[in-house]
């Protein structure tokens, strides 16, 4: 299956990637971002927050975006 | 500078880069954020919505998610510990990123970080390019964007956060926006 992956990590993704059937959100995250710091990201599927064990479907849009961007003087 | 001066608080956004020159910033996009005189905090869902909308517009993350811009209230643009933590935590996994801080009196701090190879940080000199078209200049739209995205949090007015205030309000009421709280000043600036 193909999913649209949006992530700013490394060189950045905003394109379709191939994934095996029954891939979970967590597996997709670990494959493209790494097995750590998941808590630093807002993970959404089709613009909705997703659980780690959610199964992805062909055509899904998955985004990993940074959380808690804050500045202070 | 328009966005820095329009309200009484810090403000932040993402720089939108020229597709052929990623360090040439052609626009600054706000996301929903809660701002005080000394802080700015982006709304996580709004950041994700921003990514979605930019991808839908045909941009790649390196064009819209690498240059983090925010202001400081005083004359010092030097990054705070919070700024540094955000820069490392939120942008530590990307190939390169830039933190740009605009303070009063036009003082700026710009630093690029390259996370490939051994990794390095480098201060950049910031300058305004005046010899090319800059279609994003639209004060009216900037004003609307500001009012739509910025929620002012005044810690001296209440010990509760703006979210708490919203929870107590009727469900159809929107949280107080910058325009609600600072309307006189905003209209003077936006005129």
From TrEMBL, chain A:
InterPro entries, A to Z: Mopterin_synth/thiamin_S_b
SUPFAM superfamilies with a match to the protein in the record: MoaD/ThiS (SSF54285)
The protein's name: Molybdopterin converting factor
Protein source organism: Allorhodopirellula solitaria
Source organism phylogeny: Bacteria, Pseudomonadati, Planctomycetota, Planctomycetia, Pirellulales
Automatic annotation (TrEMBL), chain B:
GO MF assignments: metal ion binding; metallopeptidase activity
Domain JAB, residue spans: 42-107
Keywords linked to the UniProt accession: Hydrolase, Metal-binding, Metalloprotease, Protease, Zinc
Superkingdom: Bacteria
Name under which the protein is recorded: JAB domain-containing protein
GO BP annotations, alphabetical order: proteolysis
InterPro entries to which the protein is assigned, alphabetical: JAB_dom_prok
């Amino acid at each position: 299956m193909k999913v649209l992956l949006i992530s700013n990590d490394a060189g950045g993704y905003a394109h379709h990637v191939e994934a095996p059937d029954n891939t979970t959100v967590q597996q997709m995250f670990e494959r493209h971002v790494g097995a750590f710091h998941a808590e630093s990201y807002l993970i959404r599927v089709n613009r909705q927050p997703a659980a780690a064990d959610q199964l992805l479907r062909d055509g899904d849009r998955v985004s990993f975006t940074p959380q808690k961007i804050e500045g202070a003087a | 500078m328009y966005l820095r001066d329009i309200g009484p608080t810090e403000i932040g956004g993402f720089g939108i880069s020229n597709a052929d020159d990623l360090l040439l910033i052609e626009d600054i996009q706000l996301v929903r954020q809660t701002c005080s005189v000394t802080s700015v905090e982006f709304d996580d869902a709004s950041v994700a919505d921003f990514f979605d909308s930019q991808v839908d517009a045909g941009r790649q993350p390196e064009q819209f998610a690498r240059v983090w811009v925010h202001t400081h209230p005083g004359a010092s643009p030097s990054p705070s510990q919070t700024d540094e933590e955000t820069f490392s935590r939120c942008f530590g996994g990307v190939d390169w990123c830039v933190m740009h801080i605009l303070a009063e009196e036009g003082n700026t701090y710009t630093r690029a970080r390259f996370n490939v190879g051994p990794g390095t940080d480098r201060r950049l000199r910031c300058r305004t390019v005046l010899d090319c078209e800059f279609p994003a200049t639209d004060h009216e739209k900037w004003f609307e964007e500001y009012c739509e995205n910025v929620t002012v949090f005044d810690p001296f007015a209440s010990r509760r956060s703006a979210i708490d205030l919203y929870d107590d309000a009727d469900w159809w009421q929107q949280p107080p926006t910058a325009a609600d709280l600072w309307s006189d000043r905003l209209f003077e600036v936006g005129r």
